[in-house]
Design a protein that fits this description.
This protein is of the alpha+beta class and about 210 residues long. Helices cover about 15% and strands about 30% of the residues. The protein is built from two helices and eleven strands. A five-stranded antiparallel β-sheet has the order 1-2-9-5-7, with no helix packed on it. A four-stranded antiparallel β-sheet has the order 6-8-3-11, with no helix packed on it. About 5% of the residues have low confidence.
């Protein structure tokens, strides 16, 4: 009788062990953590020097030969952009306009010329394109707008970057007849004495 009880006890213990083993299956759980990235568009143009350019003609040789570029006739700009960009330049008016006499409008825009030099890590011919040849040589000022700096294709890296990548100097000159400027010297244009002005606009946009 005692042996039967012991056997039954062992049998019951065996069933409990099997049941426990059956219930001890691997357990897992899952949590979800959303991760989002927001890319805000950055497109900034800064004029850091030379925001007001003025040429003063007070000698005959200046009328004959023009006023060449020097540091006092430079405009420095930089661009910070998170994507490829283009820069357009142009005069607000169709001609320079006299301030003493606004009817003096014979001083044409092409008497002023400029050339754009890259000082940053991005260079013309690699990250930058030169659609108006404003880096290759002196070009005449035109009415707004002329695209003067473009971007290489995205496959080629493009021109996105900060001010260390994209900073430029615009070298201005007047009456020199260089490049595509007016080929007639100021002394031969019979212009009335006046202070002639226009605003040069710069427009920074996303490259297509």
């Amino acid at each position: 009788m005692r042996r039967n009880v012991i056997a039954k006890a062992f049998l019951a213990l065996g069933f409990l062990t099997i049941a426990a083993a059956a219930n001890a299956q691997p357990v897992s759980d899952r949590a979800v953590v959303p991760v989002a990235v927001t890319l805000n568009q950055i497109l900034r143009l800064n004029v850091t020097n030379g925001g007001n350019i003025e040429f003063v003609f007070n000698r005959i040789d200046q009328y004959e030969n023009g006023i060449a570029n020097s540091a006092m006739y430079d405009t420095d700009i930089d661009v910070s952009s998170s994507t490829r960009w283009e820069l357009a330049i142009g005069a607000e008016d169709a001609t320079f306009i006299g301030t003493d006499d606004p009817t003096n409008i014979l001083f044409t825009l092409d008497n002023v010329g400029y050339q754009i030099i890259s000082n940053g890590a991005h260079a013309f011919g690699t990250e930058l394109t030169d659609p108006a040849n404003a880096n290759a040589g002196v070009v005449a000022l035109t009415a707004f707008s002329t695209t003067v700096i473009g971007s290489a294709s995205a496959l080629a890296g493009g021109n996105s970057g900060d001010r260390d990548d994209n900073n430029f100097t615009i070298n201005w000159e007047c009456g020199t007849t260089n490049g595509t400027m007016n080929a007639t010297a100021l002394i031969d244009q019979d212009l009335a004495p006046d202070r002639y002005v226009t605003n040069v606009l710069m427009d920074l946009v996303i490259a297509p």
